[in-house]
């Protein structure tokens, strides 16, 4: 299988995960790209992938009547501020702490879903 088809399959998997669970599409790319990119570029690439995938998922949710903009609005405002602050700290936090924090978020999310 060519690299282009592997990338397309990974993108389709990320989109499916994002659509089914309402987020998390970028997590698909972490293990796939971890050998190809350095940590900081890896995290930035995964974040960059999230936006278009989430836009497509949100459009589908909206068309099917499952999206409430009023409920989402406070989270969007907080997310924009958090994204700005995180972007400003990009490159200033050691990657070991980024990996640990990401792992803890994954663990927390997994436990929450199981309970």
UniProtKB/TrEMBL annotation:
UniProt keyword list: Cell membrane, Membrane, Transmembrane, Transmembrane helix
Keyword set includes Ion transport: no
Compartments reported by the entry: Cell membrane; Membrane
The keyword Manganese is assigned to this record: no
Topology in the lipid bilayer: Multi-pass membrane protein
Membrane spanning residue stretches: 12-30, 42-63, 69-90
Family: Belongs to the 4-toluene sulfonate uptake permease (TSUP) (TC 2.A.102) family.
Protein's recorded name: Probable membrane transporter protein
Organism of provenance: Dysosmobacter acutus
